[in-house]
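Shift notes (night). Ran Chaperone protein HtpG while the centrifuge was going.
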Amino acid sequence: MRKFKTESKKLLDLMINSIYTNREIFLRELISNASDAVDKLYFRSLVDETVSINRADLAITVAFDGNGRTVTVSDNGIGMSKDDLDKNLGTIAHSDSFEFKADQAKNTPGEEKGLDDMTDVDIIGQFGVGFYSAFMVGKKVQVVSKAYGSDEGWMWESDGVDGYDLKPAQRETHGTDVIVYLKDNTDDESYDTFATEMGLKNLIKRYSNYVRYPIQMEVTKTRQIEAEEEGETPHWENYTEVETVNSMIPIWKRKGAEVSQEEYDEFYKTDFHDYEAPARTFSVHAEGALTYDALMFVPAHAAYDYYTRDFKKGLALYSANVLIMDKCEELLPDYFSFVRGVVDSADLTLNISRETLQHNSQLRAIARRLEKKIKADLVAYRTDDREGYEKFFENFGRNMKYGIYSSYGAAKGAVADLLLFYSAQQQKLVTLDEYLEAAPEGQNAIYYAVGSSLEHLAKMPIVTTVLAKGHDVLLCPDEVDEFCFMAMMDYNETPLKNVSSEDLGLTTEEEKKEAEEATEKNAGLFDAMTDALAGKVEKVVVSTRVSDAPAVLTCEGPVSLQMAATMKAQMGDAAEGMPPIPVVLEMNPKHVVFEVLQKAQAAGDTDKVASYASILYDQAMLVEGLPIDDPVAFAQKVADLMK
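Came back to this:
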């Protein structure tokens, strides 16, 4: 037995048990090596006239033996001599493919034969360790190879522990067979699926579907046998047939003019397991310092787990047509996490296991370009198909709003102009730009109201008062809306103002003066009401922003009653430590109820003042769409008024 070169046992153990985290990728690595071997022979045929190869004959074969528990990956590529086997497989982390790429980079063949075909030669291997992933599933591996132009075949064999054997072997043609003898099953691990037709086909489809050469397997099919005699029942029989399992040419590398939308739709539904065609399809083809192709889709509906913690964003990442990871999170910002698709680049600097990347700067560069493309397509979507865009926003708008909030407003430049809100005045969804375009001259803020539903918000006294003054109000029933607006603070330097918690600047100086005088005149009444509502309100004042309701609740400071309620619900028991929100009960001095309170105060009926103050507070809470502390007590007080 020959010993592995380098610190063999420790390094080999590292290769098998540490570098790779997913054992099923062994097939991806072996197929990638086979593809490289075929590429090398094809390249040689381009630059050496003595090598005659028909590219149509080049292929990779995957076979299995369920009884013998083996998996075999074969190719008819350039093959290896005895010395090649010793050097390439006996020296861990030696990459013949990497050397090949380096040599070609130094010695580009100029205008020689087949130069146009050189773009088709893209060696996958880099590190010389992918082969050893076979030992994750195999207790023994044999490699039978015959170099192109040689009459000798050789077999390399190892159990992946200390060393390997090299001995003569028979192989009819040039190429290589890698035979993996699967490990025995244990209580914790089963390897049987790797020696099944379905198991291997699924792995090929998942990881190697777009390898440029046909990956062929003998598959079992069923056909009907016609009855030999009249009246005899036809029966079915199984038969085997060699079938090409992979697609070879990725749809994202085909010219857009050559691909129909039906083909894009079918690819999306098949690869991303969706029952409905995507709402939008768009692609990016970039060349330069970093060359890559991207094909992206906007789903027609949200995934069942989209708004859960289990959802994982990301685009499928390929390198040289080989799947590196199902979902590369770095390629999508959170606010565009709904986008599905693929990115393929042979320029990525992969780490040694090809499961992650070494330099995130490359990903960041791609991600920035993709973000701009997504944004541009969504703008076009909104412009070209407003009805479709509104449906899209119904599915994914909440996530874009949350993206602004979770980024503390940093994302507003990217997505704020994509947001839609319901206009109380126009009675339809509008963008912030559309809101401002319709605003009267001199309006210097965007007004919004938050609550439980559009119907409820449209009837809120403060909203109807603002509308009566000729200003529109954005109705925001989604609990994330207020958090989003608070993070934004403004839109294109126009302040965003909550009608329930901020000074809207709509009160005239005369109205302010009247309110101050009325508050001072009724100071005793308001003190009594404040005492009756101790712990609930900070103070009671005359309102300048309500015209038809007896009273409303507002807040001093940026936090509204709705936001406070949402925060308490999210924090649970921890909410007990939250500082109290300064709530203000604003009274309408022109409402008949105010006269009743004035009379009760003048008569010294403190119980009546306290009871009415409590009723008005609970009414205002209900108008805000918020629960009251004691519904039974409230109902009893209302019943007492009816006696």
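The domain at 2-222 is CATH 3.30.565.10 (Heat Shock Protein 90). Residues 360-384 form the longest helix (25 residues).
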